[in-house]
Amino acid sequence: MNKISKTFLFLCSITLCSNAIADSAYDDYFMEQNGNDFLTDEDLKALEDLQKAERTGVDGLGLQGSVSKPGEMVFTFGASRPTIVCAVLELCDIALEKGEKINTVQIGDAARWLVDSAVSGTGNDEVQHLVVKPLDNALKTSMVITTDRRTYHLRLKSSITDFMPQIRFIYPEDALAKLNKLKEKKQQDDERNVISGTGININDLNFNYLIEGDEKIKPTRVYHDGQKTYIEFPEKAIYAPLPALVIVNKVNFFSEDDLQTANYRIVKNRYIADGVIERARLILGDNDDALTVDIIYKDK
Q1: Rounded mean pLDDT for each run of 10 residues along the chain, 300 residues in total
Q2: Are 255 and 292 in contact (CB under 8 A)?
Q3: What is the rounded distance in angstroms from the CA atom of residue 230 to the CA atom of residue 251?
Q4: What's the maximum distance between 2 C-alpha atoms anywhere in the chain?
Q5: N or C: which end of the chain has fewer CB within 10 A?
């Protein structure tokens, strides 16, 4: 055996020996039972409870994630600690909520995982992304993303071929807030539609009345809610003489109309009569000088 061969064998033996020592040290390090000598019973119990909680979803109900469309995985924020699977030579795109701004990104194994940022959309439609790429197979680590709205705690695992190309989140608390906001807006709209002093919503009323006669005593509007009829005058009308309200049972062309005194009460600038009035007349004054207004309900 020549000198070169002997030298090569010697170097190989040193390398193998060094690798064996390194592997042995690596194994010894992780056979230290994770420093259990320093952990109390309470610490171990807490870790055990944490491992139980790490099951898929909440109480194992399978809320880990769902496929929304080809290539996209959707996680419910707060329902679990998501596990994101990435592949060597592929990219995982993690999209945050529209308008959400990233503050910091921390990753446990920064040496073997690459994380870059990207942005899609503009203005109010801007979405910030994190693009994750592993440098080797069978890796696992954790990542923490803090934003101006929340904090994400994620697991990362690497595979040779299998991966999740797109990841996004849904936010139950935001959906609830939007629902409450819509409910509040509807309530405000309803309050705006309530006729002052009545508590009646304008959307529940029928205004299909024809009003004809003297302008001096003419009401501003007439409507009913199916049970009562309301005749509304201008607010200043309460300081002037108010007309009488009569029900017109029949219109006679060759004699006086068949009139009947109506039962009604006056509340501020409104007459309120029981029932739905089909035809009525307002009269102020006597004989030929009387001012009159006819109120006719148009059923259709």
Answers
A1: 50 46 50 56 71 51 63 88 92 96 97 97 95 96 97 94 92 79 74 67 87 93 92 88 90 76 90 93 88 88
A2: no
A3: 22
A4: 145
A5: C
